[in-house]
Structures are given as C-alpha cells and as structure tokens.
Amino acid sequence: MTNDSKSLPVAHPLSYDQRKKALIAEGALRRQQIEVSREILRENLQADRIAKNAVSHFTTAAYAAVDNIFSWNMLRNGNLQTLLPFAASAYSLVTRRKLIVPILRGAVVASAIGGAVYLLTRKKKARRVATVLPVSPPDYLDPGV
C-alpha cells in the first residue's frame, strides 16, 4: 500500500463546527465586499460621473496626441505630412461654422489683455528700479570732481 495523498482521505485540522463558522464568516466577508463593489458601481454609473470621466479621458488623450504631434523634434524637422490634415480640418471647421469673427474677437481681447499686463508689469519694474537707484549720480560720474 502506497502512502499517496490523492488516494487517502486527509483529516481536516478543523472540526466540523469550526469549518462551518469559518465558511459563514468568509461568506459574510464576501457579501460585504460585493456590497462595497455595488456602491462603487452605483457612484460611478451616475450621469455626471460618467460625463466627468469621459471628459477627463478625452482631454488626457487629446493632450497626449497634441503633445506628440507638436513636439519640438517634429516641428524642427518640418513634418508637414502630419500637421497639414489638422490644419486643413481646423480651417474647414472655422470657415464652415462662421467662427472667423468670434475667433478674431477672442484674439483681439486676448492680445489686449496680454498687452495691458505687459505694460503694467513694465511700469511696476520701472518704479522698483527708480526706488532702488539713487536720486543723484555718484561722485565718480560727476565731471567736476
């Protein structure tokens, strides 16, 4: 007779009552995990959450695509075969939907704001420099000395 573990029944280290309690506890834990999973699904399947996730996924994918398209190496090498379809579709979209005037307005407003910010920062820098510099020139610059 061989001592093969497949042919001989192995005595379980736990008694019948202990195994029953362990299985009941395992079942309760499994039910709790299922309920948590259901709550997560309920939260993630709401319309606003789906929309947020879709927008987030779309913006991430679009950012990665634009980042790959407009990388410095591609622009430096002048890869027009990749850039021209995007330029053509953007031109078509702008002209088809009569978006030229709103885009020009937006460009004018943005450039006006940028110019104003530039002038204000330049004026602030000039004030700071004027307060730091002395009012009268130093002696070594005075020709009469």
Task: Describe the structure using short key phrases.
single chain; 145 residues; mainly alpha; 74% helix; 0% strand; elongated
How would you characterize this protein structure?
There is one protein chain. This protein is mainly α and 145 residues long. It contains 5 helices and no strands. The chain has helices at residues 16-44, 47-69, 72-77, 80-96, 100-132. The protein is elongated, with a radius of gyration of 36 Å. It starts with 15 loop residues before the first helix and ends in a 13-residue tail after the last helix. The model has no long low-confidence stretch (mean pLDDT 76).
* Oligomeric composition of the shown chains: single chain
> Could you list the spans in which at least 5 consecutive residues all have pLDDT below 50?
none
Percent in helix: over 70%
Percent of sequence in beta strands: under 5%
Shape: elongated
Order of helices and strands: HHHHH
* Rounded mean pLDDT score: 76
Using only C-alpha atoms, the radius of gyration works out to 36 Å
Number of H/I helices: 5
Give the N-terminus to C-terminus distance in angstroms.
Answer: 122 Å
Task: State the major sheet.
Answer: none
Which structural category do the helix and sheet elements fall into? mainly alpha
Q: What is the count of β-strands?
A: 0
